[in-house]
Amino acid sequence: MRFGLFGGPSRPPGQVGDGKSFRQFIDYVVEAEQLGFESVFLVEHHFTGAGQVSASLTLLSYLAGLTSTMRLGTAVTVMPWHQPLLLAEQAATVDIVSNGRLDFGVGRGYRANEFHGFKIDPDEAQARFEEAVGLVLKSWTSKERFNHDGRFWSFRDVIVEPQPVQNDPHPPIWVAAGSEGSVRKAAATGQRVLMDQFGSTAVCAERIGWYRDAQKQAGLPALPNQVALTRGLLLVDHPSKKAAEFERRHLMGRMIAASAQIPGQAPPANPTGPFVLDKSDDATQAATINGTPDECIGQLKALEAAGVEYVLFNDPWGGIERLRFFAREVMPAFRKARALA
Amino acid sequence: MRFGLFGGPSRPPGQVGDGKSFRQFIDYVVEAEQLGFESVFLVEHHFTGAGQVSASLTLLSYLAGLTSTMRLGTAVTVMPWHQPLLLAEQAATVDIVSNGRLDFGVGRGYRANEFHGFKIDPDEAQARFEEAVGLVLKSWTSKERFNHDGRFWSFRDVIVEPQPVQNDPHPPIWVAAGSEGSVRKAAATGQRVLMDQFGSTAVCAERIGWYRDAQKQAGLPALPNQVALTRGLLLVDHPSKKAAEFERRHLMGRMIAASAQIPGQAPPANPTGPFVLDKSDDATQAATINGTPDECIGQLKALEAAGVEYVLFNDPWGGIERLRFFAREVMPAFRKARALA
Hints:
The structure is a homodimer.
Chain A: E1 2-7, H1 18-35, E2 39-42, H2 56-66, E3 71-74, E4 77-78, H3 84-97, E5 102-107, H4 112-118, H5 125-141, E6 146-149, E7 154-158, E8 173-176, H6 180-188, E9 192-195, H7 201-217, E10 227-235, H8 242-259, H9 281-287, E11 288-291, H10 293-305, E12 310-314, H11 320-329, H12 332-340
Parallel strand pairs in A: 1-2, 1-12, 2-3, 3-5, 4-5, 5-8, 8-9, 9-10, 10-11, 10-12
Antiparallel strand pairs in A: 6-7
Helix pairs in contact in A: 1-11, 2-3, 3-5, 6-7
């Protein structure tokens, strides 16, 4: 089992200025690489009022210079917001400066306030997503000039450069997928899958089964780093601290709901879009890595038995102390398994 | 007098793959900082077929992690191509990760093939430029959500984050300006000016006069780093090598012309847009720093006497050896002057 990070900088409540939270996050990621975490996947959001990361590829480019082995991912780049050729250029630049460490996660967007802010019709999201992903792939791989006359974008006689250094055929594409159709489609087309942080172990097992089955039917090789699962990390050094961690997780849920809210309108019924955000203690127990090191090891072993080989941890404003504690008390149980395997 | 770099990576003729030229350029910039060069200003171009830098802010973000004191500039970001809020987010992210070293150069675009490729009407360039610059400034400085209903872009209830760390009032804005009206307007509005690499010393002197006069009339303070002049660097260690350097400069002119050409159409009459590209030896003599160290010192002293306090060097595919030679043989003549002043 391999471990990575999921998230990005944003201001903790009450903090002023965006430089401090970015610097803290950067230090956190750089030390995480030393501790054995193998990737960082940055979210992209806009207009939250919390100083969140928005230019994810720009921040990844900086992190490329401060890290040497970790994969640098987006989870996800929201395609409907971006002009696809400029986006392909930015992503290829990250791939170059990182010597081929880009993992390009793509999505349709789900937050009501972002569609509202950009004045983009949510009903267009799927069509924009498909046209944009196609254009990025063509930009990365075409050695000839091409024209494009699409519904949302048009270009004439373009060759898009620089081109990525992962060119056989291109940097990995990751999609957030949960339904049987979308998981099977990703597997059959060679895309990788990001599984959300709200599904239970049983749900994850079913989704991985779909992925591996469709991949096998398509004659594609199965690799451990093709499916990544995000989990909240609620590791504590004493059982008495568990309740406070559950409350912190519920606070995160309330903040996502507030962030997705259109100013002056009621909060959206489902602020996490296609994912089901259940703020109950039972749901948190089922869909986080929580409790003492022994409890966390047990939960991760259960995921491993369900076919999960790659876990990304989401710990908003997480102190580096928690990652150090994880690396010392939990990670060795899995390093040993990998070495034996 | 202070010195910086102007340009960006692109593949030398015959080279394959974009990773190598980017890596060479990055190494060049990092050593230049050690040698005493105080800035790098990256161009932005598209669709040349030469693997040129396109995502300038993405590359600057990477350079932020490998440098510690040099200013990180764009010369220029071509505003009509970009969605202004996403651009403001990228630029602010560079400003944060560099601890406030962003110099944001802005322009309208001039290459025919870029307007053609993006399918943007050149007649709209000025209006797009003005709307985009206004939106970037509002994005960087507004602490409240705002609406925008423009000719080219519209947004609703947005607050744009992260915000830059240079916030008194915002990162410096640089404009490419040459006419009396545009130079005076920049000075009066607190913008800095990038002067092109084709004007003679006498032309530069006149432009700086306009800038300082308009600045004085507006009651704004005069600082040495408000006007930067770009020059080709044709420094050689022996007079016999000068002719080859002039030919290299002419090759650059021909390549700019070819890069600005719409595929299948005749080369543009004026490939450098508002700037006059004169490929004669006389023009090259008048508008480059060329020859032996003593000759270069003399030319730079003449610029200094004309009021130039900041020179950016453009040396396409320039080897680091030339910068080392410059730092050793030319720079000390000016370091001493600065120390005495």
